[in-house]
Amino acid sequence: MRQFYINYSIRQTPSDEFKLTWSHYLKLMRIADINERNFYEIEAIKNNWSLRELQRQYDSALYTRLALSKNKEEVISLGQRGQIIEKNKDLIKDPYILEFLGLPDKSFYSESDLEQKLIDKLEHFLLELGNGFTFVARQKRITFDERHFKVDLVFYNRILKCFVLIDLKIGELKHQDIGQMQMYVNYFDREVKLDDENKTIGIILCQDKSESVVRYTLPENNEQIFASKYLTVLPSEKDFIKIIKNS
Predict the structure, then answer these.
(1) Is 225 strand, coil or helix?
(2) CB hemisphere CA count around 79 (13 angstroms)
(3) What pTM does this model have?
């Protein structure tokens, strides 16, 4: 089979072979920052993104969202290796972009409406969650002391070998919501996970949150529970800049 070698001058790719379509590379060549460009190329190859999915991930600022919580060396690594999941926080984005649900910003909908939309668009949601996620259950019931509780969504991450619980909250996050997720995580760790599996991760998706409430409710060494905002419309470039500055 004849091989074609990339020769555009802006950078040398990891393998020097065309592994994407020419339309993919035309899109990549328009990304000015070399680390960001490399990241999207690596992820597009690794995850077999279509051109539409590459455009969607770029429009939703995936690189920027992942880079927000990383130091300089880790940001450089994103451009060299793509997204590498080695620890719990590597899974987390803030915010999550859920524009594929078709829900207008600040419309009136319930948590059950949001959950149903995510189930209806599960394939899209799995792409937004990231690498290694598989769906396990919705409204997973847990019972003790004759009391019943339900976890909105349960996933399993094959890379970290752990359950990932997601709770959906409309409006601003409250400290009681964090306490509830702590209870869910503790239950899964003690009653559900196997001995060779890692500790459960809990993600609370909310429309708004106070960083101080999150910080002082969780222990300083927290590595299991995370609170992230979600957006139901794709922000403009101006709005993304505002989000970045406030993060």
Answers:
(1) strand
(2) 16
(3) 0.84
Comparing CA positions, the residue from 41, 39, 98, 94 lying closest to residue 65 is 94
> Are the beta carbons of 154 and 163 closer than 8 angstroms?
yes
Question: Alpha helices, DSSP H only, in 68-174?
Answer: 72-81, 111-120, 122-129
In which domain, by residue range, is 54 found? 1-84
Calculate what percentage of the chain has a pLDDT beyond 90.
65
Sheet of 147-157: strands edge to edge?
96-97, 225-231, 201-208, 162-172, 147-157, 133-144
What are the tokens at 33? Answer: 């920052």
- Note the pLDDT of residue 247: 60
Strands (E), the chain: 96-97, 133-144, 147-157, 162-172, 201-208, 225-231
106 and 183 co-located in one domain = yes
Element (H, E) at 44: helix 34-47
Residue with tokens 């500055």: 245
- State mean pLDDT over 187-205: 97
Residues 157 and 135 in one domain: yes
> What are the tens digits of pLDDT across the range 91-103?
999 899 999 998 8
pLDDT in tens, 117-158: 999 999 999 999 999 999 999 999 999 888 999 999 999 999
> Is residue 245 assigned to a domain?
no
